[in-house]
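Good day; I would like, with your permission, to put a structural problem before you. What I wish to show you is a protein chain and, alongside it, a tokenised description of its three-dimensional fold. Here, with my thanks, is the record as I have it:
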Amino acid sequence: MDTVLPDAGPQNWVDRLAPEPLRPWLKLARLDRPTGIWLLMLPGWQGVALAGSIQGRWPDPWLLLAILIGSVLMRAAGCAVNDVADRDFDARVARTAARPVASGRISRRAALAFALACTAASVAILLFLNLASLWFALGSLPLVVAYPFMKRITWWPQAWLGLTFNWGALLGFAAAQGGESLLGRLGLGVAGAPVLGEGWIPALLLYASGVAWTLGYDTIYAVQDIEDDALAGVKSTARRLGRHVPGFVLGAYLVAFILAGAAGRVGGLGPIFGPCLLAAGLILAWQARAVRQADAPRALKAFKANTWVGLVVFAALALGHFGVNSSFTTPG
């Protein structure tokens, strides 16, 4: 039987239900650890919800489904590339030594082919979205490709992850504007890139909020690996900050909360938005209080609570269309 990674949990569905030959591939895609899928998907959902509320409507369910599928595929691709790049580091870290590439169950070439197939499938989804979405998706590629190498060159790889994971907020905001898809434009020339005018200010604030949020929660996640990362020479904010991690996380979450509130206010969202956002803020405050440098299980529990934070913020943005009073018109 495959080794269960410490942060996957002994009851994950892959180890309980999946056929033995499929388990390494499902674990390469991190399907045994769905928290990362949620954290990649939710900024996209939030962008869709923000655009919808500014326009006085619910988010488009089909668009939310497309972002869900795309997030599963792109996280799988990103994890495969990350595992190939980090195979030597992973083999020296207790929490990651059992990963399929690091343990030799999947070859580098096979993992890269898997990543390419997942990327191709996600591109196929983009063909049905508007052209602005395609431009934003292309804009994310340098962030995705560079991320696995950040822990080698900077103490702040968590900041780069924030820039990468939350790009979906801009893509979702763009996709919610509607308009012609790439398939509809075939043979009709190439459309220009989206122009980030005044109507994009709420989305840019939401994106910045997400970057600060990720900086906080991924610092909590990195607490699990402080000792192993030090031995392997891997850099992280948790290693850099040491005993100051709780204060830093609290500060990052405070910035995230303020920027999310600013996105709703600038977008003119209705009165339900504020109380819902406050609920998310309370969960964030609990996380900052709960994290301890020497308590990896507690750090993992606090990290996983961010799924609820993202869902509550999404609900706040979606419900914000009640009583909306926006002077903005989202870009069309």
